[in-house]
Amino acid sequence: MATVTPTETAHTAGLSREQLLAAYRTMLLSRRVDDKEVQLKRQNKIFFQISGAGHEAVLVAAALALRPGHDWFYLYYRDRALCLQLGLTAREMLYSAVGAAADPNSGGRQMPSHWGKAELNIVSTSSPTGTQFLQAVGSAEASLRRKLIDGTSGDEVVLVTTGDGTTSEGEFWESLNTACNLGLPVVYLVEDNGYAISVPVEVNTAGGSISQLVRSFPGLYVQEVDGCDLVASYEAMTRAVRYARERQGPAFVHAKVIRPYSHSLSDDETMYRPAEEREADAARDPLVTFPAWLQAHGLASEAELEAIRASVEEELQAATDDALAQPQPGPATVTYAVYSPEVDPTADSFDTEDDPQFSGSETTMVDLLNQCMKDEMRRDPRIVVFGEDVADASREQYLDRVKGKGGVFKVTWGLQKEFGSARVYNSPLAEANIVGRAIGLAIRGFKPVVEIQFFDYIWPAYMQLRDELATMRWRSNNAFAAPVVVRVTYGGYIRGGVYHSQTGASLFTHTPGLRVVCPSTALDANGLLRTAIRCEDPVIFLEHKHLYRQTYNKGANPGPNFMIPFGKARTVRAGSSLTVVTYGATVQRALAAATQAADEGIDVEVIDLRTLSPWDRETVFASVRRTNRVIVAYEDSLSWGYGAEIAAAIADECFPWLDAPVMRVASTDTFVGYAPSLEDATLPQVETFKAAYARIMAY
After folding, report:
1. Distance separating alpha carbons of residues 249 and 251, to the nearest angstrom
2. Residues 467, 59, 231, CA angle at the centre, nearest 5°?
3. pLDDT of 43-70, one tens digit each?
4. pLDDT-derived band at 265, boundaries 50, 70, 90
5. Does domain 570-697 have CATH number 3.90.1170.50?
6. With 50 as the cut, is the pLDDT of residue 9 above it?
């Protein structure tokens, strides 16, 4: 069929005819991959499907406005067309759908539509809605920090995409606050299809328009566009990207799209959407309107469009046949990249404990933590330190006039004055903000050492810690890593009541991918923090508030290369009658009780674990096999606490050597009260240990 004579000159926003036809091909390919996955799911050949249908036009437009492998992408599960335009192939997407070993997104570890490819800077996508925003802000912040630190001037832009429903998440608003406050080159693309599963936009969003709500953010460039119109979308995205690339600030594109298919194959939209609404969407379908527009303006003939369709079908069939023939990942690969395959913090290379280079007088844990961070920041310019109140003074004009804050416990005091505000700076009072940004910075090559002021308030960051930080390396099959150190104060014995005494280490030791460290002395804190910073895994570094300034755990500065490997316990006191396995603030109480018990002929061996994940099984088991009795002591609540795992492992491995049950000493199963009498009754005391020693020796 001949080309239709145009009635008017088409407005193409500078896109050539070839680009427009290629865009149509990508849009069609995206839709047909969706359709193929639906078919395969119904044939039980794949196990999940969620479509990007109806979003194709704005997504292809966005990719055309950006630079794959130069710009950075934090996407969500409807972004198939964008990924195809950036360079992912239908073959690779179907590898993901069948869970093939060759899946470039995750090696078969993630569900389909969870995009990720390092070569294209598509950062591994996850399922939790909204976690991508803060990571995208952290990624964009990397550009700012590099410029401030060494003058490196880049023009990369970070694109973060979302559905309309996810804009109700708090992390969305936290990210906008920081992006606007710092003027970061982030482009937000909201793909508004009117529904969050079955919940309509007016229920999710006050006034029904997210772009209206965000217009008050300073420096935010806001546009609305018909996301079913490729040319209009390209113009809007081009303007937004230019605004961010020129470092004018973040941009926000609110694209109205459609959802012609149900939310996923587990959803049936006919249950909550009437026929007329679905028909109205169908009339706007870009896979119908765009080829008609191309024909109407003489940019494509029916024959040309049919040739594109045939080409897409040929590619799709070949990709499907290839994907279905692909081998699944071997079972042995499931543990690959839970932690760094290249850098092992338990290795001898991290063990310089036997050769400290002491200088100066003995000092507190606070001082030696501070000294470690200074040493490491002098060694590695990639290290940045941030969190609530960690700076000496956010207003730099005051730095020469004030002593400096340096954290509520003074652990980071003086760091900003020495290393500058580009590397040491305060964050908003928002824990998810801290961890999410740290992940984004780490992906871009920085080494964030961040502080959560109190363990009691870490919970807003738990999603970022558990679902994002811990899983990043594993879920991307080692394509991406986020080696972040999260310093957090914890624990009782300070008369702090319920909201300043919490522990709960088991919530993090239970999370694969995280290293969990808990020193009890100043010297151990220095050496373990250095290992945490130099390793390539995310680390939860627990600092007990009660231990910060005690006199009994002081140590001298061991020098800038002093390291203690993870998984190496310390035998604090040798003994032959029974073994106590403990950590943190209960170490000293176990020791004090052991000294008193010696007068009664009970010779107690006390082992300080120092690191909780990994823990030193070899040292513990060897001790138990010698003493034949063991108590596991911890500050957390008795039931379901960290010590239960240690006790279970001892029972499994050392049962033939035991002359008594494995016993536990821990806090009561309640909260810590403020009154001294309540705190003392809740937390393990010296007398608690003495009674336990006597009880176990009675067997």
Report:
1. 7
2. 160
3. 999 999 999 999 999 999 999 999 999 9
4. confident
5. no
6. yes
Domain range list for the chain = 17-326, 348-557, 570-697
What would the DSSP string read from start to end of 505-525? THHHHTSTT-EEE---SHHHH
Q: Say whether pLDDT at 3 is over 70.
A: no
pLDDT per position as a tens digit, 343-364: 999 999 999 999 999 999 999 9
Question: Residue 168: in which H helix or E strand, if any?
Answer: none
Q: What is the pLDDT of residues 417-469, one digit of tens each?
A: 999 999 999 999 999 999 999 999 999 999 999 999 999 999 999 999 999 99
CA distance 326 to 329: 9
Catalytic residue among 55, 263, 297, 500: 500
Of 167, 171, 181, which is closest to residue 440 (Cα–Cα)?
Answer: 171
Burial of residue 638, with CB atoms counted within 10 A of its CB: 0-12 exposed, 13-18 middle, 19 or more buried? middle
First and final CA of the chain: distance in angstroms?
96
Phi, psi of 488 (to 5 degrees): -145, 130
The residues near 560 (Cβ < 8 Å, ≥ 6 apart) are 375, 376, 378, 379
Distance between CA atoms of 598 and 698, rounded to whole angstroms?
15
The DSSP symbol for 166 reads G
278 membership: H or E segment, kind and range: helix 275-283
Tens digit of each residue's pLDDT (9 = 90 or more) over 610-648: 999 999 999 999 999 999 999 999 999 999 999 999 999
Please give the CATH architecture assigned to the domain spanning 17-326: 3-Layer(aba) Sandwich (3.40)
Please name every residue paired with 191 in a beta bridge, in sequence order, or none if there are none.
163, 255
Question: Is 500 an active-site residue?
Answer: yes
- Residue type, position 431, single letter: E
Angle subtended at Cα 188 by Cα 183 and Cα 192, rounded to the nearest 5 degrees: 150
- The SS3 assignment for 644 reads helix
> How are beta strands 383-387 and 447-452 bridged, if at all?
parallel
* DSSP track, 616-629: -HHHHHHHHHHHS-
Q: Is 145 helix (H, G, I), strand (E, B) or coil?
A: helix
CATH class name, domain 348-557 = alpha beta
Q: 498 near 671, Cβ under 8 Å?
A: yes
Task: Tell me what the mean pLDDT of segment 171-185 comes to.
Answer: 98
Closest CA to 237 of 128, 81, 89, 92: 81
Q: What is the dihedral of CA 680, 685, 687, 689, to 10 degrees?
A: 150
Instruction: Give the confidence band of 8 by pLDDT, cuts at 50, 70, 90.
Output: low
Around 112, how many Cα atoms within 13 Å sit in the side-chain half-sphere? 31
Taking a C-beta distance cutoff of 8 angstroms, is the pair 84, 25 a contact?
Answer: no
pTM value > 0.70: yes
Burial call 267-282: b when 16+ CB within 10 Å, e when fewer: eebeeebeeeeeeebe
The first and second tokens of residue 500, run together, are 């300043």
Residue closest to 505 by CA, chosen among 676, 365, 645, 390: 645
CA separation for the pair 652, 155 (Å, rounded): 57
The predicted structure's pLDDT at residue 153: 87
Asked whether the domain spanning 570-697 has the same topology as the one spanning 348-557, the reply is yes
